[in-house]
Design a protein that fits this description.
Distance between the termini: 39 Å
Oligomer: single chain
Mean pLDDT: 84
Strand order of the largest sheet: 2-1-3-4-5
Amino acid sequence: MSVILYARVSTADQTIEHQETQARKAGFEIDTVIADHGSSGLNTLLRERAEGRRLYDMLRKGDTLVVRWVDRLGRNYQDVCDAIREFMRRGVTIRTVINNMTFDGATTDPIQQAVRDALIAFMAATAQAQAEATKEAQRAGIAHARAKDTKYRGRKPTYDRNQYQLVLDMLASGAGASAIAKASDLTRQTVLRIKSAPDQAEAALLAWGH
């Protein structure tokens, strides 16, 4: 029985190491790290990614699959639901670093199954909605940055791309500002500023080349 961390990064500014560090700090003892680099979770299904295919091949009954949040598996609603249900049918336990959630196929009670499946569906839908909102924020951020005097970049952001993405992910999962601040090593004020104006937060990163 193995504990496998699946990590995915879609840009050069994100790092696999950051996701692994988060998982280990949360108490997970990782045996194997499987990671896809430069893969869109919205447009590329898990089975279509090189390491995603490897993940499908590796997982066996009794294994634990760890992901930072379900959006690392993907940001396509149907694909995420299908993947989690397929892994549960195999006897795999899926655990998230954010919110420390656990999904498995152990229960046979239909009510508990319905609640579990509804939660999976909600999280998958939230992942897709958040991805679409992020793309819109990026478009708005680019437009905002272009509209400004290119010689004036404003104050350098107090957060990097990884922290910005973590804030968005945790906001999408329903986490509060204080919990996000603690997890991201940012001030609560910075988290609230990103929450209130993600396009401006994105623009600030772009202006400084992040």
